[in-house]
Write a structure and sequence with these properties.
The complex is a heterodimer of chains A (239) and B (231). Chain A contains five helices and eleven strands. With 239 residues, chain A is of the alpha+beta class. Chain A is elongated and about 90 Å long. Chain B is mostly helical and 231 residues long. Chain B has seven helices and three strands; from the N terminus they run E-E-H-H-H-H-H-H-H-E. The chains are: A alpha+beta (239), B mainly alpha (231).
């Protein structure tokens, strides 16, 4: 259908149509330093919110056959400070505190007395690499029940011998594959890989899986989230 | 809503030219928002890649490409992830809105490549690349353009699916599995990005070659002096 229009009217209409694209300029806010930081934080927080809502407690991470394991010698050693914080294993205990009925210092043997679970799972680093490892330990959920933890609390937080620290949402803490890990490839954890005890969580990114644990707390309040999160990385980072 | 075709007269009353309304506002908004998002996603994606610039083992690490930091967005892995995990939502939203709009208005017919367009592709390729004669212009997009844009949309979908497999390889384990697992999904995501950049290069060349009036149609919606007649 052909209609007539006049040039001046056409020009005005074109100008109006161009102005209707103004919402695109809203993205320009990201170019302004003052707005950039809060906008990016909002984006990251939204991504974490979506991640938390699509996490399913009953859904297991893929497990692998022994033949698919990355050789132990090729399992990277990653730390932020030192590979070996020189723990005295004879004196080591896990100091438990917070919303629990039985706080105090727990020896490794007490954790090893709980049922042991072995799993071959994929370890994904935020950097982008991945390896498949074999891990053994007690379910964190079993340990939380043993210490009489308030399972309706929001978080489990940990501190480490190298002053790394992390926090875990309770839903992930109760997941069947979340382990207090003390074995790797059927051997006791080596010093560099987090001896005597580390978190092993195949539903989380690598940096959540803290090594050389020294303290465990059950809490509803987070003063700080985690070593990397407090520098701007994702707080939930479920896989 | 606009009349599809206008005959534009000078203010004195002489006929000057015709104009066709090619691109509705929703299409234009999605185009530009998506284009900016894609730019940020590619830039921040490359910075993320720099954190482990390899698709092989970590031990020992063999660097595939040492991509310069200056050609990436974010400055460091944490910063790049913030940009990437923010703009991916804008990219996804504009893609979904565009597809829904096209479907529900029937406007997709202008751009979607369908089987009857297959025979028109070769004459167009011959014209653009092998000095063939110019086929008659009968519609807003010729067969080759429809093939290119439809492929680009397919690549857009793949960029989201491969990204989802990397971001959530456990919650979307079936999707990751279809791609060969997390390790391979990361490779596909990288390759899809390069395919999109290849499309982008061709797209920009064509935009330049097809002149100002054509470019303006993606700004105002109206194309002056279209080569095809009124519908």
């Amino acid at each position: 259908m052909v209609t007539r229009s006049y040039q001046s009217k056409f020009k005005r209409m074109n100008r109006r149509e161009l102005l209707k694209l103004a919402p695109v300029l809203a993205l320009g806010a990201f170019a302004i330093p003052k707005f950039r930081s809060p906008f990016l934080k909002t984006g990251l927080t939204f991504s974490d919110w979506v991640s938390a809502h699509i996490f399913r407690n009953g859904h297991l991470a893929t497990t692998f056959a022994d033949s698919e394991l990355t050789p132990f010698s090729k399992f990277p050693i990653n730390g932020y400070d030192v590979d070996d914080p020189q723990i005295d294993f004879d004196k080591w205990t896990l100091a438990v505190d917070g919303a629990v009925q039985k706080p105090g210092d727990y020896k490794l043997a007490q954790i090893q007395a709980l049922p042991k679970f072995l799993q071959n799972t994929r370890h994904v680093c935020v950097e982008g690499w991945d390896v498949i490892g074999r891990f053994g330990g007690a379910r964190l959920s079993d340990y939380l029940k043993m210490i009489g933890a308030d399972l309706s609390a929001k978080y489990v937080t940990v501190e480490c011998a190298d002053d790394y620290y992390e926090s875990l949402d309770m839903e992930t803490a109760l997941h069947a594959q979340t382990l207090l890990c003390y074995e790797m490839y059927d051997q006791p954890l080596s010093r560099a890989h987090g001896a005597p005890l580390r978190l092993q969580i195949p539903t989380k990114v690598g940096y959540k899986q803290a090594k050389y644990l020294t303290t465990l707390k059950v809490t509803n309040v987070l003063e700080r989230v985690g070593y990397w999160e407090d520098q701007g990385y994702s707080e939930f980072y479920g896989l | 809503m606009h009349e599809a075709v206008l005959e534009i007269m000078s203010d004195k009353g002489d006929a000057i030219t015709t104009a066709v309304y090619e691109h509705p506002l929703v299409v234009r908004l999605c185009h530009w928002l998506n284009a900016i998002s894609l730019f940020v996603l590619a830039g921040s994606g490359l910075q993320i890649f720099r954190a482990f610039p390899s698709f092989g083992p970590k031990v020992p690490q063999h660097v595939l490409i040492d991509w310069p930091k200056a050609y990436a967005i974010g400055g460091w892995l944490g910063g790049a992830l913030q940009w990437h995990l923010t703009f991916m939502w804008i990219y996804l939203a504009t893609g979904l809105i565009y597809c829904a709009y096209q479907l529900f208005t029937g406007h997709y017919r202008q751009v979607l490549f369908v089987p009857k367009d297959i025979r028109g592709v070769w004459p167009m390729v011959r014209y653009y690349f092998f000095f063939g004669r110019k086929p008659p212009v009968t519609e807003a997009y010729n067969s080759l353009q429809k093939q290119a844009y439809t492929s680009a949309m397919g690549l857009g979908v793949m960029s989201v699916l491969t990204g989802l497999a990397i971001w959530k390889p456990v919650q979307f384990s079936w999707l990751a599995w279809m791609m060969g697992g997390f390790h391979y999904a990361r490779i596909w995501h990288f390759l899809v990005m390069w395919a999109i950049i290849a499309f982008l290069f061709g797209h920009l060349v064509m935009v330049v070659l097809h002149g100002w009036n054509n470019f303006v149609s993606m700004l105002t919606g109206w194309k002056k002096n279209p080569e095809y007649g009124p519908r």
